[in-house]
Structure formats: structure tokens, C-alpha cells
Prior knowledge:
Four Helix Bundle (Hemerythrin (Met), subunit A); globular
Amino acid sequence: MRRDIPPLDEVRRITQKKRDAWWTVLLVDPVATPLVRLTAMRTRITPNQITWGAFILGLGSAVLFWLGDWRWLIAGAVVYHLSFILDCMDGKVARLTGQGSVFGAWLDFVFDRIRVMVCGVALMAGQYERTGDELYIWLALAVVGLDTLRYINSLEIFKIRHSMRKQIKERVKEARRAENEAELAFMEDLLRDNPEADIEQDLQKARSAQGIAEAAPQSAPQVVDLHQEFRSRFPVYLRTRSFLLRHRIRTHLISGIEFQMGVFMIGPLIDQVLWATVVSGALLLLFELAIVYKLLLSTRDFTRTIDSFAERGRRAAAA
């Protein structure tokens, strides 16, 4: 079977995320995207079948890790990375062919968590058998716990941010009904949608747009910046973020993906499972704490924004 599939550059535009982990951008997408195009053109393989393939390869890498010897560790690391490449391909094939489904997203998420758990236990069990060091038992629990913490934290932060944005939008709708004000835009969306632009210029444009909106309410959107305090405290973040976004790399440099690769690829390849796991776990925790701190400052921006709407309501009522 041969589907009518666009050229590779167009496939990249359709399938690759605007922001992704640096490991994926630099080491996976250059391989996965051409394979996605070839898979879509030449086969009837579905995204769910690719998800199953990634899961089975992940289980195979767990068996190799359990054998413990360095030669098997290298083989396990290679197979794990092949599993991760397939794991990145399923979503890309779904976007390219329009075969995505809610169940497929659930299956991908569940299989990812099982793969990390099984590989973590197998890797540390193999090293325990090899060395007799009980520390590996605790490392197995740490790998599973940190992976779970990362995804729970990510989900909860997303829910909180969504709740804050929803409340602000409701306040703006109330204000528009009362005062016929302009539409609403969030600064983070403006910056995310235009990663090629200079962020300092984006901020200035946004401030100018807000000033125009105050003078002519229907001509420009009102901009709400829920990361204003964080940016003011860490101005270098803006330049760093701008540079990374131009290369499609998100600022969360040590996420669940980099953590997995540190534990299941770098550690086995250099035969330093213990230290690679400890360093990867410490870096993951550091970046998770940074995200929580950023959320804390965002809640302060949120409170000030809500208070500003309340103050404007009081002024409007007094007038």
C-alpha cells in the first residue's frame, strides 16, 4: 500500500511538536520522522500497533538489564532507545494519518509507566545480583517513585494553570459584558505561538498592545502575563527560553525523558548505573522544584490579576 504523503519537510511540520525535550529533538526526531513518513507511505501499521511494538521492545530491554553483565547492559540500552523511538513514532503517525484516538493516548501513557517500572526493577535487580549491594533495591523504588512523581506533578500543575486561566477568562467575560472590553490573550500563549521571535520584543509588543487596548478597547486583546514575577526575578530566563524555543527545545531541560535516558541508557552504556541514576534523579528533582517555584510565583500574578478586576469593578460601580 502507498499513501499520498507530503514531503519530509511538511511531515516535520505536521508531526513534530513546537516544543519538546532536547533528547527527543536532537537524538530521536532526526531518526523517527523519516521512519514515520516511510511507515505511513508503505504500510498499514496503525499508531496503536506501534505503541504495542514499543512496549514489547521495552520489556525486551528489561530482560537484558536483568542479566546484569555490562555486555547485556549495552544491549539493553540500545533496545530501550529503539523502544523510545517507536514510542515517539506512534503519536507522529497518528497526527500524519489522522488515526489518533483517545484510547491510543491512554494506551501510550499506561505502557510508558509500565515500561519504566519494569525496566527500573529489572535493571536494579540485575545490579543487585551482580554486586550484592542493597542500595540497588532502594534505587529501584526511587526510579519508580520519581517517574510517578514527575507525571503526577505535571498533571496537577496543568490542572491548576487551567483553573487560573479559566477564572481569569470568566472575569474578562463579565467585564466585557459590563464595559464591552477587548478580547483576552495570555502572554505564555503569545510567546509559545511565535518561538522564532525575540521574547523581549514580544513583551514590548504585548505591553504596547495592552496600552492600545486601554485606549481603543475593540482594537487589540488584553494581555495577561501569569509569569511576570518569575521573569522579573530571572531576566536571563527570557533569553535562554528564546534561544531554546528557536530550536524547539523546552526550558524544562531535565524532564521524565532525560531522566529515563540517564538511567536506562547512559548508566548502562558506561557501566555506572548507580551514579547515573543518582545524578539523573537529583537533576529531575531540581527541575521539578523549579517548576513548583514558578507555579508559586504564577499564583501571585493570578491573585494580583483577579484583584485588579475586582478593583476595576468597584471603580465602575462608583462611576
